[in-house]
Amino acid sequence: MSEIKKICCIGAGYVGGPTMAMIAAKCPGIDVSVVDINEARIAAWNSDTLPIYEPGLDELVIGARGKNLFFSTDVDAAIVDADIIFVSVGTPTKTYGMGAGKAADLCYIEGAARMIAKVAKGPKIIVEKSTIPVRTAEAIKTILEANSEEGTFQVLSNPEFLAEGTAIDDMSDPDRILIGGDPSDEGQAAVAALASVYGTWIPDDRIIRTNLWSSELSKLVANAFLAQRISSINSISALCEKTEADVDEVANAIGMDSRIGSKFLKASVGFGGSCFQKDLLNLVYLSGHFGLPEVANYWQAVIDMNEWQKERFSAKVVQTLFNTVRGKKIGIWGFAFKKDTNDTRESAAIYVCRDLLMEGANIAIYDPKVGAEQVYADLEYLGMERAKLEKQITFCDSCEEAASEAHGVAVLTEWGEFKTVDFEKIYEGMFKPAFLFDGRNIIDAELVREVGFDFYSIGKG
Ligand code: NAD
Ligand code: UDX
Question: How far apart are CA 181 and CA 176, in angstroms?
């Protein structure tokens, strides 16, 4: 294929929007169209209030939008024009039928492939950006070839490794770019074409070329290993609480071993986000599907430990507050699954709030980026009734307001501002004894104990 002039991305979500904004910013000679069937989302990408919050994203989008970066609902037109088509649609856990609760739901992937097949003319490079089960490229290729009259296709795997909250840095200076392709000459030419786009700003020794299946599987495995580290340290946090060891000290001591490394060893109320649980479940499902129950059980334990950590935290709050929270106010600081994002998918806060509400607590939530409608939607998805939620939840504009006249406060997201609030003022406004439960280990224990708080932090003896 000759030089890449036009790129299209199907799916304007947390991955499609930011990745395409980065390519547009780094490659002014390439026109990048991001398309989605969700009109409201596209309208938001074209407005002053982008649909997702990500540090540095506004500047990136505003710098390129209308020049060589376009957001549109005209999926067909963008497909027809493009040399490379990224597929960045959701691949959530299936909720129905075979593999429900574990397998990835590939209906959006298939929908995108059929849209491409219907209108594409001439040679196209199709890039799997979504995280998908190993060997999905085969299915995409079959759908494309069976349904297209005028298109010819090379399917590549190019999984995305950005983390929310740090997406812009992750993309501008990635550890690696992974491209999997067919070993044929045509396949390798397609790999070279995609590599040339990334090569605009990423050194070639960081662009890994593999076969399709290694690339697809590596994405699931990378997320599984990262999640496994968190479950490992969280399992140790429970042991620390029994033995007066301090989990941060243990993490520091093991992390200085260069073979172990220091990252992803922060004990917490549990990992959240749209990826870890979904991709682990998918790995568990695939292992079972390929007749490897021991492998499936091994990875299932990482999920089970995460579930237990969330339940353990909720139980700790209830037990500490004299075994009853019925009618008590509990402040919730943070609802997003991590700091610097407005994303709440699989946030530990959803499950802790659900548990406390079921115990009859009244909760007062403050999150700098998450609004009431999102919280209601997340809890309603778990089967809770809106009318009851409206009675039991209040939404606040500050940490102080959420803590005012509360019996306890639970810190559920590691937002920077939670570390520097005026704890004396917070304490004054609360019922006594006043309890602070730090699910993120970000609060200075000495400081808040001096102020008078009864303080719990995960994994601290
Ligand atoms: P998302 O739900 O935010 O966005 C997906 C978008 O695709 C939606 O806006 C949806 O309307 C659109 N869509 C679905 N079918 C379509 C079609 N046929 N035509 C046009 N648009 C269509 O999802 P996301 O968080 O961006 O994740 C996308 C993929 O990337 C997933 O496979 C995910 O596992 C993977 N991933 C996500 C992250 C992350 O941090 N969120 C990181 C790495 C990889
Ligand atoms: C993850 C992967 O990091 C990224 O490479 C992939 O592309 C998508 O999935 P993301 O889910 O956006 O990214 O955020 P991440 O920083 O990995 O955090 C996931 C969850 O783990 C958060 O809830 C975070 O608070 C938690 N976490 C992370 C811990 O509890 N302890 C840690 O040490 C690190």
Answer: 16
Q: Is the pLDDT of residue 326 over 90?
A: yes
Ligand nearest to C-alpha 440: 2
Contact (Cβ atoms closer than 8 angstroms) between residue 151 and residue 121: yes
Ligand 2 centroid from CA 364, angstroms: 26
CA of 78 to the centre of ligand 1 (A): 17
Separation of CA 21 and ligand 1 centre (Å)? 15
Tell me if 226 CB under 6 Å of ligand 1.
no
Question: Of 345, 357, 331, whose CA–CA distance to 418 is shortest?
Answer: 331
Instruction: Inform me whether the pLDDT recorded for 2 exceeds 70.
Output: no
**pLDDT at residue 62 tops 70:** yes
- pLDDT above 70 as % of the chain: 100
Q: How far is the CA of 306 from the centre of ligand 1 (A)?
A: 24
Which has the closest alpha carbon to 147: 126, 132, 171, 178?
126
Residue whose token pair is 């939670």: 418
- The residue among 1, 4, 2 whose CA lies nearest residue 199 is 4
Q: What is the pLDDT of residues 86-135, one digit of tens each?
A: 999 999 999 999 999 999 999 999 999 999 999 999 999 999 999 999 99
Q: Whose CA is nearest to atom 6 of ligand 1?
A: 11
- Give CA angle at 415 (414, 416), nearest 5°: 110
Closest CA to ligand 2's atom 4: 163
User: Which ligand 1 atom minimizes the distance to the CA of 111?
Assistant: 18
Ligand 1 pocket, residue 345 CB under 6 Å? no
Which residue, chain included where needed, has tokens 């390519």? 23
Catalytic residues: 275
Whole-number pLDDT of residue 26: 98
Sole residue written with tokens 């509400």: 357
Instruction: Give the H/E segment covering residue 146.
Output: helix 136-147
Q: pLDDT per residue over 405-446, tens digit each?
A: 999 999 999 999 999 999 999 999 999 999 999 999 999 999
Nearest CA to ligand 2 atom 14: 163
Sequence-distant (≥ 6) Cβ neighbours of residue 322 within 8 angstroms:
none
- Substitution site in 160, 215, 271 for ligand 2 pocket (most atoms within 8 Å of beta carbon): 271
Nearest ligand by distance to the CA of 273: 2
Q: For residues 202 and 174, is the Cβ–Cβ distance under 8 A? A: yes
* Mean pLDDT calculated for residue range 52-74: 97
Q: Which residues contact 357 (CB under 8 A, 6 or more apart)?
A: 363, 379, 384, 388, 389, 392, 393
> In which band, very low, low, confident or very high, does the pLDDT at 1 lie, cut at 50, 70 and 90?
low
Contact between residue 187 and residue 118 where contact means Cβ atoms under 8 Å apart:
no
Q: Whose CA is nearest to atom 3 of ligand 2?
A: 163
d(CA 129, ligand 1 centre) in Å: 9
